[in-house]
Amino acid sequence: MVRLTEHLFPVKRRNFLRKATGVVAASSAFPSFAIGKPGKSANEKLNVAFIGSGGWIAQQPYKQGCSEENLVAFCDVDRALAAGNMKDWGTEDRPFFEDYRVMLDKMHKEIDAVVVSTPDHNHFAATLMAMERGIHVYTQKPLAHNIWQCRSLVKAKAKYAVVTQMGNQGHAGMGIRQSVEAIRAGTIGEVKQVFCRNGWPDFGSNHFANPKIMPPPAQPIAEGLNWDLWLGPQAKRDYSPDYHPKKWRSFYDFGIGVLGDFGCHTLDTPVWALDLDPPTVVECVNRKDSLEGVIPASSHLKFHFAARGKRGPVVLEWFSGPQNWERVGRIDAFGADNATYKGRACWMVGDKGLIGCGTHAGPPMIVPTEVRQKWQANPPEETIERVQGGPFREWLAACKGGPEPGSNFDVSANLTEIVLLGVLAERFNTRIEWDAMQGKVTNHPELNAFVREPAREGWDLGEYLWKS
Fold this sequence. Notes:
By secondary structure, the protein is of the alpha/beta class. It is built from 14 helices and 15 strands. Helix 5 (123-132) packs parallel to helix 6 (147-160) and helix 6 runs antiparallel to helix 14 (409-427). The chain is globular and about 60 Å long.
């Protein structure tokens, strides 16, 4: 991974705060309780806030550890969605905000940690503004919407010394650790190929839109929704229920498709096990046609990773949408049956066998039988610390002085950058040649406009510059 050591410049918050309705004057001195000081006692409760507190994804932090802390503030651009969760959680009496800029400006001295569960295009600004105030952050995957944002968050982590975690929950599990240790111990020999897949997008579900024209026809803005705040840094456009709620992942301006949604889960195991840096080349082998700005019904990508240390080059192939998984590449070389194929979303192919894992990592499936039996009888040494209680408890424990979370931004920014390069190749149905040191696409320089996307006036955090 490219190491970024330059510090960020202090953010200029004038545009953010002047344009926020009802905002109080910005404080000139941010709290220092989370910067350069020992963590809280393991028995002391944290003050936790939520940005994007509506929708099903926001149920996760409550159920998986945050309910044991002090829940002090909630923010969502959709009051109706947030109201349901707050009622279920018994927090209807807590402060509620539509605009996270207002919440952070008014309450930053009362907030220790924040969970960011917005659509992808708002991850960066919400996360960075919390970090700037010394607030620990848990940001759902993918970490950010473009590569410049990912690298800027790595630098912000170093500058503000807060505890960070990205929400690819499988990274905290036992299964991924077993797979990584097995690969590193040579259980299946040298790995040169990886195959990953996901059957989505399911355009017939509530999660993905399949518009007939672009942009979708304008509709009256849903009651309780602040549409301008939902758009955040993206250009203004008319509201459509194809965008909100839930279906925004179909549009590259807001989400980054199936690869962005599931790639941060499924690619996590091979990226960790094989110590993969960003690829030198990503090629879109094929994709279904789609309207401009809309994800395809299926795609096939190839990521080419250079040799590193004792590991040779690796080719990782990604398949989304309907695919004949049983005939992909050479994953049948060691006698895996159809049931095995259909139960795994990732296969790492070695010269002695295969290791398969699920969409969210999970326990390894090792093929052939004799290799699996040998692994079971004499498993590799446990070299990776185990996590108790899942990713939110791992993060909260770190906020109180425990070990740094496994999917901290140093780790998750690299994974997300790999995913984003795949999205770029898929979006433009092309081959991407990537210079990681320069942070540039070298064969299609016009695509560098998407490495760092423009932001709408009032949402530009251009003061946060990175250099390799």
